[in-house]
């Protein structure tokens, strides 16, 4: 279902359940702000702050919680699944109304999700999916279609390079849904262009520093072999921006000597496209706060939710970046 339509259809229901809740205020209601007394307490287990994308997602969730008078318990896992599992156990012990989880990797969630389910605390997954044998362990997933994003990037690049050339790939965090699916989608997109080859592929962990470091190693290795790199495909903008720096430091021109394609469409990517150093980025919206809290409110009210809501994404390149940059929200 398209996210806008979904948001509209849930707004009425969410409004209704808040209104019903207001009739029933306990004495300590006076202490707090909007919808006091029935304020939901929601735990949010965030992965970390590895990219501009993630900072924008955190901000979207935090500001939406404030707007709705939800008490948010925010935890930053510093990229570690064990920290996320600990945070979820703490949320369960605190008897929060619901949990929002952005899972760092796909696997290893069953035990803790079973604990949340046993405690009857709904879990809403945002931005990354999990791989579990029983999908009743979470209520819903709100995320982009990462396979489609990878495919869009490959199709754009195949056209740009006329179907021929050597590509190096900067992967996201190992084991994460976007790294797995963006690789898969990109490879699917390349299937129609057999002259295009991924010659090197490594993880830069979704960070600018990681992207720079891996790209430096790729450039050095290619130079040693006398091989040419025609393009870089980065699983996010931050790694692409790091790679751009590495390319410049190697005395080459990113955007023309080496074509650079990435995913996310953060502000800095638009600036790089306008400057001519980044060629293309596929949008992946981090503005998930409104949809996440619509889902929380529905789940708490016992209203059924779709298992997945796919966020729609677009592609931008140097021909469209200048017009779009002013209206970007992240
Ligand atoms: O693309 C990347 C981030 O999970 C979709 O995580 C998200 C990805 C995003 O760090 O920049």
Termini Cα gap: 23 Å
Mean pLDDT: 91
Number of strands: 12
Which molecules are bound in this entry? beta-D-fucofuranose
CATH superfamily of the largest domain, called what?
Response regulator
Number of domains: 2
Q: Rough shape?
A: elongated
Biggest sheet character: 6 strands, parallel
What are the secondary-structure elements, in order, as H or E?
HEHEHEHEEHEHEHEHEHEHEEH
Which range best describes the helical content: under 10%, 10-25%, 25-40%, 40-55%, 55-70% or over 70%? 40-55%
Which structural class best describes the helix and strand composition? alpha/beta
CATH class identity of the largest domain: Alpha Beta
Tally of individual helices: 11
CATH architectural grouping of the largest domain: 3-Layer(aba) Sandwich
Trace the largest sheet across and list its strands. 2-1-3-4-5-11
Uncertain segments of ≥5 residues (pLDDT<50)? Answer: 1-36
CATH topology descriptor of the largest domain: Rossmann fold
Rg measurement, Å: 21 Å
Kindly estimate the percentage of residues that lie in beta strands according to DSSP: 15-25%
Question: Keywords, please?
Answer:
single chain, 330 residues, alpha/beta, Rossmann fold, 2 domains, six-stranded parallel β-sheet, six-stranded mixed β-sheet, 11 helices, 12 strands, disordered N terminus, binds beta-D-fucofuranose
